[in-house]
Amino acid sequence: MKPTVPLLAVTMMLAGASLAAAQSADTAMDYDDGIRAYTADDVPTFNIAEDGTVDWPTFSGFRRYHAECHVCHGPDGEGSTYAPALKNSVMRMDYYDFLEVVASGRARTGASGNSVMPAFGTNQNVMCYIEDIWTYLRARGAGELDRGRPAQRADKPEAYGEMEAQCMG
Ligand code: HEC
């Protein structure tokens, strides 16, 4: 007869869930290593200036996402009938879990059919740019980047170019 107790329990669960979400969704830039921006937890993040100029890695992530992931996950990280909206996934997923899924893939079989996320671990066109793709998707998920091609971007940092050349070997 007293609904207050279960209601309180639900409220506390929701509070706990949103606290966890707030932690994993920390996108604030803390520092830049000359290649890209990072949060205080050393997780790559975007750096978008007030005039909308997007940092090079985030712009690169936009391009790589649309070259490698768009076909299943839909334009702009919005999702499709086949695969989830990654702009939302990255706001609740741990960065290292994200890397793991992309590198190793994931398959699910069910009554409604098979759904397969391919493993990209040996694909340089994905793995050399995976931080960029993460950063781009987080900018989308945080609501800091509109759909479509970013209108303005910063130049490619020299250190980024060196890292890229080394990775692509
Ligand atoms: C051939 C289609 C296909 C391509 C290409 C593809 N994915 Fe996926 N991906 C899927 C499917 C299907 C799932 C859902 C798998 C499942 O049901 O567990 C998925 C799941 C994921 C997940 C887990 C999402 C979550 O909410 O748990 C991540 C992260 C992911 N993909 C990242 C990527 C990235 C990054 C790329 C591009 C480099 C990419 N995927 C390209 C089909 C694809």
TrEMBL record:
InterPro entries: C-typ_cyt_methanol_metab-rel, Cyt_c-like_dom, Cyt_c-like_dom_sf. Residues 1-22 form the signal peptide. Residues 50-141 form the Cytochrome c domain. It comes from the Bacteria. The keyword Ribonucleoprotein does not apply. The keyword Plastid does not apply. This is C-type cytochrome, methanol metabolism-related. It comes from Halodurantibacterium flavum.
